Amino acid sequence: MVLSADAMKGQEAAHGEYYGLLLLAASGMMLLVESLDLITFFISLEVLSLALYALSGLLRRDARSNEASIKYFVMGAFASGFVLYGMALLYGATGTLSIPEIGQVLAQKAPAPALVAPGFVLLTIGLAFKVGAVPFHQWVPDVYEGADGGDGVHVGGGEGGGLRRGGAASADGGPDGARHVGPGDLGDRDRDAGDRQPAGDRPVRT
After folding, report:
1. 18-49 pLDDT, tens digit each
2. Residues 120, 102: contact at Cβ < 8 Å?
3. Cys staple from 122: which of 29, 81, 86, 105, with CB 3.0 to 4.6 Å?
4. Which phi and psi angles does 37 have, rounded to 5°?
5. What angle do CA 129, 131, 135 make, to 5 degrees?
6. Residues 74, 77, 79, CA angle at the centre, nearest 5°?
């Protein structure tokens, strides 16, 4: 925000709503990193997305900026449907909204329930649309071209960076790195402890 203050001087977008939307997008990214369940993940993702939709069309008298905002909004709403449907299937298959608990349930069930595969597919498609990953990147050139330079940076780094950091935090069990130990981890921990014991103290396996 501090770095973009000088760049936005003299622009039509240099009004209070620019800084408000920028703070709203930053709040969405912070919540996305902290989310450990599907509902919080979706709400924080949409808070971030709505702020980016508005930032893309902040130059109200620029036709390209208006086109970028509309295209971004339509494609983002389309992607949100995929994300929400995928989350619903995962909840139906595991019976929980907690991301670490979903991993534990899937680790205990073999084979995985039938709804897991389509749920992950729909969730992946929706998130790929959100970050503009190939082959779901058709909207990216129009939005980047129509958005103002500083807003394009926020669009490019906002959802992609937030999703990568949020996924890493969820995989670790939380933003503080505290890993949720599952049944499979207990066996690995016991094997590691046995490997660290001196040779004379190790139990003899027959």
Report:
1. 788 888 988 999 999 889 999 999 999 999 99
2. no
3. 86
4. -135, 165
5. 50
6. 110
